Fold:
Amino acid sequence: MHCIRKITNDLTWVGVNDRRLAMFEGVYHVPEGVAYNSYLLTDEKTVLFDTVDKAVRQRFLENLAEALGGRKLDYLVVQHMEPDHSAAIMEMAAKYPDMQIVCNRMTLTFIKQFHDFNMDSRVLIVEENDTLDTGTHKLHFVMAPMVHWPEVMVTYDSTDKVLFSADAFGCFGALNGALFADEVAFERDYMDEARRYYANIVGKYGAQVEALLDKAAALDIGFLCPLHGFVWRKNIGSFIEKYALWSSYTPEERGVMIAYASVYGNTENAAEILACKLHGKGIRSVMYDVSVSPASDIVAAAFKWSHLVFASTTYNAGIFVAMEAVINDLVSHNIQNRTVAVIENGSWAATSGSLIREKLSTCQNMNILGETVSINSGLKPGQLAEIDRLADAIASEFPAPEAPQQGKTAPPAGVDMRAMFKLSYGLFVLTTRDGAKDNGCIINTVTQITENPRRISMAVNKANFSCDLVLKTGEFNVSILAESAPFRVFEHFGFQSGRDTDKFAGCDDSIRMANGIRYLPKYTNSVISGKVMDAIDYGSHYLFIADITQAIVTSDEPSVTYQYYFDNIKPKPPSPKEKKEGYVCKICGYVYEGDPLPDDFICPLCKHGAADFEKIK
Ligand code: FEO
Structure:
């Protein structure tokens, strides 16, 4: 029986989920399954965008037949020839004899390589910026080589503003009845899988993804329809921003990923001690045992975190086998722009440290710290100083967040109504308390709604731990941030979760409003205490309506507006315009930096010649 969902009046999802697949592409575990998306446009002509994997093609054909409602299929647009999206082409060609295949020349070559049937008379070849009118819809074809394979193209429907993005903007995980990203808590439940998908599937091809992002920037996108994962119709910019970070190899989070390989626990012990010391300095760390965690998890984590530590025993006079696989994976996925530290172990001839350094030194812009800890079998007390030195060297790259503490005198009681005039569509630190647990997060929607009684509204994303605490305790403070607030305040309260971090560690415990909840006396201009009267579930957010129980003015500075934050506080990501000049191999994605490309240049990866390179735009 069919299982389909409408996206717009004319567009239907006819894809299929697969929860039985153990290893996607034979390499990546998919414990939550995977979705193979296919989309049917029903205009004067009918157009199908890609097909599915052979494992699910029977259900897909039922879905397609239902969505067609007895009509014939006029076009199959093949955007990507990888078999998880093209397994049903032959069956479809037989079932829909009038169907034309719309693809580019390289795709046609691949169709002939993967399939054995004569389709030349049924192929419509398209090139960059070619269009296809299907009645009321107009399709624009945009080439996206190496996002993931060289033949990949995407399609833009300018009528309904739909970008069919092929592998770009995909995600691991079955859809479970939801189709749109706004129907799930994507940031909380799926962002890790979206990052793992990106890093492992297209992470190597940052320059090519940036080229696609440049092209997409010129489009008005209302719907983003990838070949895996959810369809985006809201908040699309937030996901595109993630892609801008990932494709430029910019860390998302400042903190340390520690991956270790330990046969008898001694190397693990050194890694654990380092992690404790880092946390003691207020630096977050995550840890992976390379013998247990799948390499794809570690590659994704390396794309997320700013600092990487590799601790490995020596094995067969080299790097421990699982660690060597991870390091090779990172190098082949083009990891760059990271600070790296190494711990090695070897009972008689430790070589793993120098070999890891050697491999990672081939990556671009890697700051490999000179402080190395070398262990002979087990860490000895005298070596704790070496771990300390390594922790200090890492910590020296983390400016200590200035503890928000000032003004020890108790704030005046009562409501200072001037605090109301400081409200704007700005940025705020929402602070909460549950027993001994203090927490705070960044929010951006606080508004006065009535003067008598004095009430405010406040929207809080459900993914925030603070949302849980406000729901539980019914009380909170809102500190209104001023223009002097440095980026580290936003990092401190916005880029880490109170579920695993004490955001007020080391702060003066007396700085609290009358409700006993902390507030920020510095970098703010006012603080408002609220008691929740109502909480309304709006999907991704709770909207809280609260009585004002106390309000104080802390400075005369202007409030930070969103615009001010983006213009003056948030660090600018590297502009695509600053990209180096160069050429990219259309076959394998290798990037040659420099201009011109020598005529006799041979790609060091795939051995194709200069004719197969194109200039990076
Ligand atoms: Fe899901 Fe590159 O294919």
